[in-house]
Amino acid sequence: MAQLRTRGIADRRRAAGIVLLVGTLGLAACSTSETHKTTTTGGDTKVPAAKVTITPVQGTEKARPDRGVVVKASGGTLQTVSVTANGTQVEGVFNAQRTEWRSKWTLRPGTKFTVTSTAKNSIGTVSQASSTFRTLKPSAAQTATASLDWILEGNRGKTYGVGMPIIIDFSRPVANKAAVERALEVTAEKPVEGAWRWMGDQKVVYRTRTYWPAHQTVQLKAHLAGVRVAKGVYATRDLNRTFKIGAARITKINMKKHRMTVRVDGKKVRSVPVSGGNGQTMEYTTTSGTHLTMEKGNPVRMTAPGRKKGDPGYYDLLVNWAVRISNSGEYLHQSMGEEYCLGRANCSHGCVRQPAKDAIWFYRTVQPGDVVDITGTKRKLQWDNGWSFWQLPYETWKKGSALT
Fold first, then answer.
1. Catalytic site includes residue 333
2. Which pathway (predicted)?
3. Please, which pLDDT band fits residue 279 given cuts at 50, 70 and 90?
4. Quick one: 243 and 291 in the same domain?
5. What Cα–Cα distance (Å) separates residue 278 from each residue in 254, 281, 344, 347?
6. Which of 104, 139, 313, 318 could form a disulfide with 91 if both were Cys (CB 3.0 to 4.6 A apart)?
7. Are residues 105 and 208 in the same domain?
8. Which range (24-38, 249-263, 276-290) has the least confidence?
9. Active site includes 351?
């Protein structure tokens, strides 16, 4: 089993920074910002103008970002609502009766907002109301990171495999997981059901029920600005990423038959003799299960896990054309002088060895998130070993959501 001397993938991330602000909350009581009048029609019948209320009210200086904007009309219906900040329109939705409008997402902290609205009563009289306010700007600031996994960050604009997860990391614990999760929006040209699962307090992962349909664009919109992550802590930046799902590359490896088959969009494109872990110890046994390709290097330095120089079984090698498939040191790579094992026996320390020409081809054509399905060994891949999230049944996966 190969072991890197580096700390692993997380140290090579290019994270997109999100600033979380910490401070004392300033709250303002709700009141009305309105302009209305009474209209007379049909003799002495009087129809009051619609009354419009806006929260936060005019002049509020420390509005809570997570409470958003609410506009209500009584005695009529809302016609228009506009909320802007720095020239950008804030998204919002009306209720079915058009008597209420709410901002769709949280508000950016430390920002000035302007609200204008109109409403009509039953005879068409127009009422207008407006409010200008500022959201909370605490005096203390805390830096955090929230990003897709490093390989997506480092390869923005390229294509990814049909098994690709979306991973968001935070540099400090998230207490209000449900609030954060409600701010996460994933859309795709070819939609498929998916769900988020929390892995501790600082990582959340999105996985689809089935593999992504191939050849499409996927977008993540993390509307995090203004989300109350923990008591007195707010995110101040959104996180938006667009990426492409490429060809459906499915690799199946049978360790009993010592054979690897690669299919691209359902068509068989490669059949390769391979050699896996020798099975002398558990760590030298290749794991069976659904792996994803995670990173690659040429060469990659590999050392014997748990052994130091002079110990039996110690090795320290530079391995060519290596593609990582787990966090426990498993790679697909070029054979290291034991070609006689290829297609006949399992002779490695846990990695899958290939002939040089096939290892080079695999290395040069692989996409992050390609599926590598291995069978025929007694060691089962754990669902949290790298990107092995497909090891969990989807119904079990969903239970890790804060919204279930």
1. yes
2. Cell wall biogenesis; peptidoglycan biosynthesis
3. confident
4. no
5. 14, 8, 12, 5
6. 104
7. no
8. 24-38
9. yes
